[in-house]
Specification:
36% helix; Rossmann fold; globular; 267 residues; alpha/beta
Length: 267
């Protein structure tokens, strides 16, 4: 177990560009809104984006907490750790696999998490070094797979699911992102990336679709601006979808462990 953390959930995708980091940050904020103590670990060493999405200013560094230990930063009520807090984010991380895996392990084990119910790990895309390190070194309680409905993305999402199954990590569900585009001028909605993909993959792997998210300008703008939708528009339909997904994740985690997170839901 990782000290100070009850449950670990990996948020993953087979390929990049499907909105995985945006889903991770909103899912984490939704879980916090449901009353859980939540953290985010940005495991994308080459392209960390959680610092910007959480509105953490450039150059803000974590505080030391004893030798080789550091405190996570706090943003919007959740604890966060990212490579972006350690380095100049304008400089590329030109590192080979073992260095990347080592950096990830340091972020994970040297961060002093403070009594978290759930730590969400924003995984880099693919099925490489970081994913293997996570599977081998960390007791992950479940994975959430993010995909878009298009066939190419689903092909890669399948690989992500297969990878977690190989290492005995339960897949808690699939999030179908960008599933419907609604025209801001006329209100016409259209599934421009195809439809039904999330259901097909959930049926194939005996898991569930946690939720569907629209392809909407606001979701992107709010995340880019450091105030993700769950914080920026707490009463919106998108936020309601994220909170429903957070509840489903929490329920499945509670089913796995007898005590479950010690939280009661309130309306």
């Amino acid at each position: 177990m990782i000290e100070g953390v009850k449950h670990i959930v990996a948020v993953a995708s087979g390929k990049g560009g499907v909105g995985k980091s945006t889903v991770t940050v909103n899912l984490a904020l939704a879980a916090a809104a449901e009353g859980y103590r939540v953290g985010i670990l940005d495991a994308d060493i080459h392209g960390p984006s959680q610092a910007q999405m959480l509105g953490v200013g450039e150059g803000v560094r974590p505080q030391a907490a004893g030798e080789n230990r550091m405190r996570p930063l706090e943003a919007h009520g959740i604890q966060a750790m990212s490579m972006a807090f350690m380095v100049d984010i304008r400089e590329p991380m030109v590192w080979r696999g073992p260095m990347v895996a080592g950096a990830f392990q340091q972020l994970l084990t040297q961060t002093v998490w403070d009594d978290l119910d759930v730590l969400f790990i924003d995984m880099p895309p693919g099925t490489g070094d970081i994913q293997l390190t996570l599977a081998q070194k960390v007791p992950v309680d479940g994975a959430v797979i993010v995909t878009t409905p298009q066939d190419i993305a689903l092909l890669d999402a399948r690989k992500g699911i297969e990878m977690f199954r190989k290492v005995n990590v339960p897949v808690l569900g699939v999030v179908e992102n960008m599933s419907l585009h609604v025209c801001s001028k006329c209100g016409h909605s259209e599934p421009i990336f195809g439809e039904g993909g999330g259901e097909r993959i959930a049926g194939e792997y005996d898991t569930r679709v946690l939720g569907r998210l629209p392809l909407a300008l606001g979701i992107r703008e709010q995340a880019d601006g450091g105030r993700p939708t769950v914080v920026a528009e707490p009463e919106s339909e998108v936020t309601a979808t994220f909170r429903d997904m957070a509840r489903q994740v929490a329920e499945q985690l509670a089913d796995q462990s007898p005590e479950g997170p010690s939280i009661s839901f309130s309306e």
